[in-house]
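Comment on this:
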Amino acid sequence: MLLILVMALAFCLIVLALGALGVGIGFLLKICIPSLQIGHAVVAGSIISVASVHFFGRLMHAISSQTEEGDEIPDDHPALVLPKDFRNHLPRRRRPRRKRK
């Protein structure tokens, strides 16, 4: 039970920090672009802050997984080779014939 409370508290703190960062970026956007409404600026700031944290997390995960594996290329994903003339489209429809008068 204590673990769940600690995890919930950590989650709330992270959400609060990201929200504050989003509002701060929104106010900076509002100052830089006066024609921008404050609501739109805060939404844009929130999206920017969450996207940057997500990108940073993926980058750190990629760096940590690369150092653990070394320079080996994993063979668990087979390669799919398609021929050059592979086309993924529907067959052409014929034009309707014109009615003769």
Observations:
- The chain has a mean pLDDT of 81.
- Residues 92 and 98 are 18 Å apart (CA to CA).
- The two ends are 85 Å apart (CA to CA).
